[in-house]
Amino acid sequence: KAYLQGVPFYVDERVIVPRSFLAEILAGDLFGDDGLIDPARVTRVLDLCTGSGCLAILAALRFPDATVDAVDLSQDALDVAAINVAEHGLKDRVRLLRGDLYAPLGDTRYDLIITNPPYVDAPGMAGLPPECLHEPQLAFDGGADGITLVRPIVEAARRHLNDAGGLLCEVGRCRDAVEQAFPRTHLLWLDTEESSGEVFWADARDL
Q: Which pTM was predicted?
């Protein structure tokens, strides 16, 4: 078991150990009366690169009136996610889909897209700590500059967001690469207790 925000999740060698900073942000005041999005208006959530399903489940718990679509390319990961969805009693609200990013979604639009995609760049992959070598490399490898998947996620996000929605994306140490790739896109960089500038928020209207 691994815990995020005190919530337990089943994990094994088919998925990376849940450690995303997005868990803290989902639980925080980004979503509230003075936040960037009204939680009462969140009825559809998309979790891209869901892995163990931990963020999809946390989103379902955070937004009790929402349904959540959780997408991953790895069937192994989705098999683990299915265990977690069942253990949390969310099979009627969290739908697991296999495919490449937005491919299995058609024209569906969401109030919120969350994603913790692979974002480790080539130097980082060459120096992964020993514990990470026991986890699926597919879930880490973000290409030469770390944002091979971040680019298409950002580029296509607007087509899958409602007008008042937004994208919440974790990119690790790739902030410079993201800002160079999207110089005209307003990105709000968020801090957590243990990170600075590793997660960004983008309003649908800015994408």
A: 0.95
